[in-house]
Amino acid sequence: MGIQKEPFGQLPDGTPVDIYTLVNKNGVKTRIATYGGTIVSLEVPDKNGKLADIVLGHDTLAGYLNRKTDPYFGALVGRYANRIAKAGFILDGVAYHLAKNDGENTLHGGLRGFDAVVWQAEPIKAAGAVGLKLTYLSKDGEEGYPGNLSCTVVYTLTDEDELKIAYEATTDKATPVNLTNHSYFNLSGQGVGDILGEDLTLNADAYLPVTSGLIPTGALGQVKGTPYDFTTAKEIGLDIGKVKGGYDNCYIIRGGGAGLTLAARVSDRATGRVLEISTTEPAIQFYTGNFLDGTIVGKAGKVYKQHCGFCLETQHYPDSPNHPHFPSAILGPGQVFKSETVHKFLNE
User: Fold this and answer.
1) Taking the CB of residue 202, how many other CB atoms lie within 10 A of it?
2) Residue tagged active-site, from 58, 142, 143, 182
3) How far is the C-alpha of 98 from the C-alpha of 96, rounded, in Å?
4) CA distances for 246 relative to 15, 89, 222, 231, 268, angstroms
5) Annotated catalytic, 313?
6) β-strand partners of 339
7) 261-299 pLDDT, tens per residue?
8) Active-site residue (options: 313, 316, 340, 343)
């Protein structure tokens, strides 16, 4: 059990980037880079105790610096995760204009979101756990957002084979805040086939229908009787052909937002690996790597094809600043944004 720091290269302007390796008493290991707070690797055992890296990504920093080769692999996402329609919103009577980096919309914080900055890092240790505390100050006006937003994210790897992510933020001016991690998982191992045969359960009776631009319509859809129903365990690929392009939908967690709640469970029959995700957030975005097209070569030379990884991003609703009836994602001065997500790894 321990934590180790190593250099991971530098940005074009010379800014150094480090990578930290966290290991628990069972040999579960994760490597986290200060660039984007990125989970570069995550090794967990199968039913026979064999470790494998189950997250997509790159062996070197260079792969993460180009959006063509890095669709947010393992990164911290903010200031606002997911999409904001027409790259703007009105807050307290003031119109704010953001970068258009997803057609007419803003995606994952803009052109240079939290995934593309270097975070300050501090290793931490506690009883039965090792961790990494990351901090970043997003200045007033950065990517068009109001307020100086002070952010802290703590990754904790426990001896119970849990990877916890705790988010905290404060601001000096009202601003939208929606933070998440964008890891792509494959419980068989990164680059080992697709994830269509993995079984998924979502603790969600409802989801947010979207437009062709993947913006919520504002309505609440019921999953029962639709291809979006994962209320009981179902192979990810069973109904994916009935969903244009694949799944990229925000699910409303049953009882979500009222404390740490189980949101999702994924199991891989071949390896026995199980991932359970609990969160304090009200929603979770399920994405099946639809835009991976075989042009990205990842770790160990693995080619990432469509549906070779899934994302389960705990978060507030997409485009909340433009939907007053959605749970508010506005953080004001004197308030503290707090959120926690726990990834629990098991075998069956």
Assistant:
1) 28
2) 182
3) 7
4) 38, 28, 18, 18, 19
5) yes
6) 167
7) 999 999 999 999 999 999 999 999 999 999 999 999 999
8) 313
Joined together, the tokens standing for residue 277 give 């995700």
CA pair distance 334, 83, nearest whole angstrom: 26
Q: Give tens-digit pLDDT for 235-248.
A: 999 999 999 999 99
Give the number of C-alpha atoms closer than 13 A to the C-alpha of residue 88, restricted to the C-beta side: 8
Ordered domains of the chain (ranges, CATH): 2-347 (2.70.98.10)
The pTM of the full predicted model, rounded to 2 decimals, is 0.97
pLDDT along the chain (348 residues), means of 10: 94 98 97 98 98 98 95 98 98 98 97 98 95 98 98 98 98 98 98 97 97 95 98 98 95 94 97 98 98 97 98 98 97 98 97
